Amino acid sequence: MRHRRLRTLVGVLAAATLAVPLAVTGTTAAQAVGPSVLPVTVTNTTGRGDAVHLYVIGTNLSTGRLGYVTKGGTFTAWPAGSNPPSPAPDVAIAGPPNGGSTTINLPRGFSGRIYFSLGAKLPFFLTPDGLVQPAPWAGGDASRDVLFDWSELTYNDAGLWLNSSQVDMFAIPHAVTVTGASGATKRTGDVVTNGRDQVINALKAQPGWSGSVVTRSDGTVLRVLAPGKAAGAGLLSATYLDPYITSAWNAYTSKTLTVVPFGDQPNTRYFGRTSGDVMRFTNASGAQVAAFTKPSSADVWGCDGNLHAPNDQVVGPIARTLCAALNRGTLGTVDTQPSTNAADFYRSSPTNQYAKVIHAAMADGKAYAFAFDDVGAFESLVHDGDPRSAGLVLSPFTGGGTGGGGGGGGGTTAGALVNANGPCLDNDNRSTANGNKIQIWGCNGTVAQQWSFVEAGSTLRVQGKCLDIAGGATGNGTKVQLWDCNSTGAQVWIPQSGGAYRNPQSGRCLDVPSGSTTSGTQVQIWDCNGSAAQRWTLS
Known about the structure:
The protein is mainly β. The chain folds into three domains: 40-226 and 355-393, Sandwich (Thaumatin); 242-349, Metal Transport, Frataxin, Chain A (2-Layer Sandwich); 416-538, Trefoil (Acidic Fibroblast Growth Factor, subunit A). Helix content is 10%, strand content 32%. Strands 2, 3, 4, 6, 8, 11, 12 and 23 form an eight-stranded antiparallel beta sheet that branches. Strands 25-26-30-31-32-33 form a six-stranded antiparallel beta sheet, with no helix packed on it. A five-stranded mixed beta sheet has the order 7-1-24-14-15, with no helix packed on it. Helix 1 runs antiparallel to helix 6. Mean pLDDT is 89; it is low at 1-30 and 402-411. InterPro entries: Glyco_hydro_64, Glyco_hydro_64_fam, Glyco_hydro_64_N_2, Osmotin/thaumatin-like_sf, Ricin_B-like_lectins, Ricin_B_lectin.
């Protein structure tokens, strides 16, 4: 199954970007689906004393009606609105205090958002056409002084998709979890220690970007606006990315861009060349299938305008690939797209500093920093086709590195995994390909070295994948690699009192061969012996 991120207008005065996954039709076996009402646990670890208000707002997929969901899981359509917009009914659900949890229920057949505000409630309004979503980047919006954020979701007969979103802004960092029928939990969205401050301070220090950090009169930083929203509000140059776009676009006047939009269809390829301001794409037979006029900065920030991606199987996939490449700064230098080597991202000048610092602040490197950040699977999304529970964990505003609770996710500790001999455990070249080498390297603070130990399942994770013993083998010297988290014994690591990580299936420990300190040395399993080669500190 694949899913696509569709952009949907909800209401008439503010645009909402919702994650609406669609299954690719075909011959598939019948599968189990989750319960008619799915429990979603919201856990508050912000460290703040503000009251938390929750809102579950979106669309009934059976009727197409817009409405809200009660704490018990009942969908209710909105009453008729008016012009000018009238206040919507107060549908806030009381959220958890700091250190607490609140469980709400989500009916199957629903797509929308879970909003959460700290302190003040969120104002919503109704027109005859639907709900007006909060848009604090717009002048005079009633939500501009409210500290709030949201996650996006779809729950249908194909399962649950739940993601933290930074497409419009970064305000309240939060993790998302889902637990399936097997009991395995998937989790993403955790920030590194002091991750919120890291994002705020990085953007404040970046020339031209400080205006995107919005601070309330009492000194509270409310949000960091995504570049499209900041530019629209006059807080970032409207032409900021234009020099890079022109350079990348013109690169293909003299060479060919190859787009391979589907990871499971490597032979589906399109070939782009630029003439003037237009990049034209042909298929393998040489027939033209798409053409794009050079986009503006606004088009790139929004993945729209000249990069509009229709819901088809040719033009849309090419457009989303182009947009991801331009946001990540790889178009013009990486000639087969999409590029999935995160080491190449955000090196262009100028570049999308917002997306760069958001991803750097995530424990697994994954985020939804722009609309098509799911190209190459770099998005902060969890999915399960047979879910039993889910969760949102509102992360610490300062400090942190630990979290837990939501949806049975268990505790999580995040940071660099430092060997007693000095180097750090490192995901080679930041690649997320299955089988990628796990090695030692000089500690450098990159996402390739931001490991999370997830107590539920006792897994070590980096960039959304798990530390795995190749082939599930148990012999001394078996190499350790990166792999999709799959709840097998090859991915279980039990911390030992001396700092070792023991794999129960093999009875052996995570080990650096011969205690090497040479960067690039691939780690292995070996008989547990208490040596420095097997002692690790996660901090």
